[in-house]
Amino acid sequence: MEVPHESKTYLMSSRYDIGLTGVKGLAIDDDRYDFRSKIHLFYANTKIAEEERLFKDKLAAWEEELNDGVSLKIAEDYFTVAEGKNGKNRAVERNYDAIDEKIRNMGYFLMLTTDLSKTPDEVLDIYRRKDIIEKCFDELKNDLDMKRLRVHSSVAAEGKMFIAFIGLILRTYVHNKLRNYFDTNRALSMPQVFDEMRMIKTVKTKDGMLLYNPITKKQRTILEQFGIDEEVISKAIHKYAKTNPFFFE
User: Fold this and answer.
1) φ/ψ of residue 111, rounded to 5
2) Are 26 and 7 in contact (CB under 8 A)?
3) What domain range is 78 assigned to?
């Protein structure tokens, strides 16, 4: 589906910003499929660098194969190949106009909907929720180690599934609490957040004193999303140490 160039130009305006996500969105009325619909054109400048890097990696690999005499249909648009005499001294040159055009279109993606009432930010939110569901299954299999149940009875299987489901609920709760944080801190993922919080450790000395690592700025910001400050953490550590007989020195 080709989008008019003027629509891409309009999209560059800050009026189409979707919150602080770094994404811009523009809705375009469309009837090319014999029914009323809306094309939602999105642009994410954060995607460009990675897309360009992957594309240029492919270009380098294709160029090497073409120089070795391999025929690549997928690379025809981006290279011109001139065969030498007797199939030797093949000349491979890049089609820079086609390459530049490909790069100019990076960062854009489209979604078509028949729900004419939805705004671009609502459509994007629905799409991301679908992605969250897929990630939940991935988290069950990988992060919560549910690829194989490794049990010998149906009762044990049901129990393990129940515990995993509770874990997934808690993980989803944490993700929802940190949604605004992720919008402004794209460098951190959920596993990295948990890794960051695991660094809060406590040691009990022989004379009963509790020592714990100072809370970092990043940890403090994460805790603020849950309404927790350093004083709450300190009280929780002391309460846990007094009531837990397995808290070792």
Assistant:
1) -140, 135
2) yes
3) 57-96
Q: Is 110 helix (H, G, I), strand (E, B) or coil?
A: strand
Query: How does strand 17-18 pair with strand 23-30?
Result: antiparallel
Closest alpha carbon to 94 in 81, 79, 77: 79
Question: What's the pLDDT score for residue 249?
Answer: 47
List 62's β-bridge partners, or say none. Answer: none
Neighbour-count burial for 45-59, b at 16+ CB within 10 Å, e otherwise:
eebeeebeeeeeeeb
Domain boundary among 186, 209, 234: 186
Number of domains in the chain: 3
pLDDT digits (tens, 9 = 90+) for 165-213: 888 788 878 878 887 777 666 566 777 888 888 887 777 777 777 777 7
Question: Does a structural domain hold residue 230?
Answer: yes
Per-residue pLDDT tens for 229-238? 878 877 777 7
pLDDT of 15 strictly over 80:
yes
